[in-house]
Amino acid sequence: MINKINRKFWAKKKVFITGHTGFKGSWLSIFLTYLGAEVTGYSLKPLTKPSLYKLANVDKVIKKSIIADVRDYKRLFKEIKNSNATILFHLAAQPLVRYSYLLPKETFDINVVGSLNILECVRKINKIKSTIIITTDKVYDNSKNKIFQETDRLGGIDPYSSSKVCVEHLFSSYHDSFFKRSSKQRLATVRAGNVIGGGDYSEDRLIPDIYRFAKYKKKIILRNPNSTRPWQHVLEPLSGYLLLAEKLAKNKILKVSQNWNFGPNISNCKSVKYIANYFAKSLKLKIKIAKNKSKDFKPETSYLRLSNFKARKLLKWSPRWSLNNSLNKIIEWNKDARKEGYKTICEKQIKNYLK
Ligand SMILES: NC(=O)c1ccc[n+]([C@@H]2O[C@H](COP(=O)([O-])OP(=O)(O)OC[C@H]3O[C@@H](n4cnc5c(N)ncnc54)[C@H](O)[C@@H]3O)[C@@H](O)[C@H]2O)c1
Predict the structure, then answer these.
(1) Residue 298 pLDDT class (50, 70, 90 cuts)
(2) What are the start-end ranges of the E strands in the chain?
(3) What's the sign of the alpha-carbon dihedral 299, 300, 301, 304?
(4) Ligand 1 centroid to 253 CA: how many Å?
C-alpha cells in the first residue's frame, strides 16, 4: 500500500501551518481541509500578486488565518497555544536564492530565528505531538555530483541554503537535547526537490517565469538551459509530510534519525531546457538562450539529486506522478482554474492524486 493517507486520522485534527499564504502552504491548507482537518494558518501576507492564497480564498477555506511574523515569538506562541493544534507544519521562509544574495540578513533572520521560535514554542506547548520543519534539497554539500542521502554532509553556500543548513543544525540540537527521549512529542525536518504545480507565481522559478513570458513576450528566455533539477509536483512532497506527521503522532518510526528526503525519482531529474520545450510546445512559444553577461550573476548548483530510499522503505511513500504527468497537471491547472474555480481545481487534482 503506497502513500495511503489515513483520512480518519486527519478528520477534525487541529493543525497549525506557518507559510499558509505561500505556494506550498496554500496547497497544504487545501489538502488538509480536503482531508477534514481544522487548519490555523500563520504567515505574512502573500508575497506575490496574484497568489494561490487569494485566488483560492484560502483564508475562507481554513478555520483561521493569522497575518503575522514568525520572528514575533510572543505572538507566535499565543497563536499556537490558542489553536489547540496537535500537529504543526513550519513552511514560512524567505525561500529564494537570488533574494538571499540581496537580503542576506533578512533571509537568515526569517529562516533561522523563525525556526528557533517554532522549536521553542513546541518545547513549551506539550499538546503538539508532531512537528514537521520544511528545509530544502539545497542543504547538502553539493561540491560532489551525487545522489544525496539524509546522512550526507550538509553545507550550503549561498545565504538561503546556508540559512536552511543552520535550521538543520538548530533542529538537531533541540531534537537531541529536548525531544529524543520524549514519548509525547516528535519532530522531523523534511527536504524536497524543486516543487512545481499550478498556482506558483514566485519570481525566479522556471514555470512561473514561462507563464509570465507567455503573457508578455511570447518567447521563453532561459538563463541556465542545461541545469538539471529534481522536479516534482507539489502534491508529492506534501503527501510525504502528511504520512510522516501521522506516523510521528502515533509514535511510530522512532529509531531512525528524523531527517527525511521526499525527492522525486531520478527519471524526474531533467534539464531546464526539457521543461521549457514541454511548455513551449503546449503554449506555442519560441525559446531563446540568454547570455549571462552580468558580473553579479551567481549561478545556482547545476546538478542536485535526492535519494528517497528512506521514505520509500520506512514510510512506504513513493512518488506517484511522472514528470510529464506533473507538467500536464500544471497545464490543465492554468487552462481551467479560472473557469472551474481555483480551490475546486486544486481539490480535483488532490482527489486524482489520492486515487
Ligand atoms: N518551492 C520549492 O521548490 C521549494 C523547494 C524546497 C524547499 N522549499 C521550502 O518550502 C517552504 C515553502 O516554500 P514556498 O515555495 O511555498 O514559498 P513561498 O514564497 O510561496 O511562501 C513562503 C511563505 O512564508 C511566509 N513568510 C515569509 N516570511 C515570513 C515571516 N517573517 N513571518 C511569517 N511568514 C513569513 C510567506 O508569507 C509565505 O506564506 C519554504 O520553507 C521553502 O524554503 C520550497
Answers:
(1) low
(2) 14-18, 38-43, 64-67, 87-90, 130-134, 147-148, 186-191, 194-196, 219-222, 228-233, 259-261, 269-271, 286-289, 305-306
(3) negative
(4) 27
Polymer length of the chain: 355
Tens digits of residue pLDDT in 172-198: 999 999 998 877 899 999 999 899 999
Q: Residues 286-308: what's their mean pLDDT?
A: 68
- Asked whether the beta carbons of 23 and 200 are under 8 A apart, the reply is yes
Question: Hey, which of 16, 27, 30, 43 would you mutate to test ligand 1's pocket, going by the most ligand atoms within 8 Å of its Cβ?
Answer: 43
Q: Determine the Cα–Cα distance for residues 320 and 314; give it in Å rounded to an integer.
A: 17
Amino acid at 316: K
Q: Rounded distance, CA 317 to CA 321, Å?
A: 13
338: amino acid identity, one letter = R
Angle at 9 between CA 7 and CA 12, to 5 degrees: 90
Count of Cβ atoms closer than 10 Å to residue 317 Cβ: 26
Question: Quick one: average pLDDT of 305-324?
Answer: 94
104 HSE (CA, 13 A, CB side): 6
Distances (CA, A) of 177 to 9, 57, 334: 29, 40, 46
Angle at which helix 114-124 crosses helix 159-174, to 10 degrees, equals: 20
For 202-231, the pLDDT digits (tens) are 988 899 999 988 887 678 888 888 888 899
Rounded to an integer, the average pLDDT of 282-310 is 72
Q: Whose CA is nearest to atom 11 of ligand 1?
A: 91
67 contacts 58 by C-beta, under 8 angstroms: no
**What's at 266, amino acid-wise?**
I
CB of 194 closer than 6 angstroms to any ligand 1 atom: yes
Residue 55 Cα to ligand 1 midpoint, Å, equals 18
Instruction: Report the alpha-carbon distance of residue 328 to residue 120 in Å, rounded.
Output: 42
Kindly list the structural domains of the chain, giving each domain's residue range(s) and its CATH number in brackets, ordered by start.
7-292+302-354 (3.40.50.720)
Q: Using the mean position of ligand 1's atoms as its centre, give its distance from the Cα of residue 104 in Å.
A: 16
List phi, psi (to 5°) of 250.
-90, 10
State the DSSP code for 317.
-
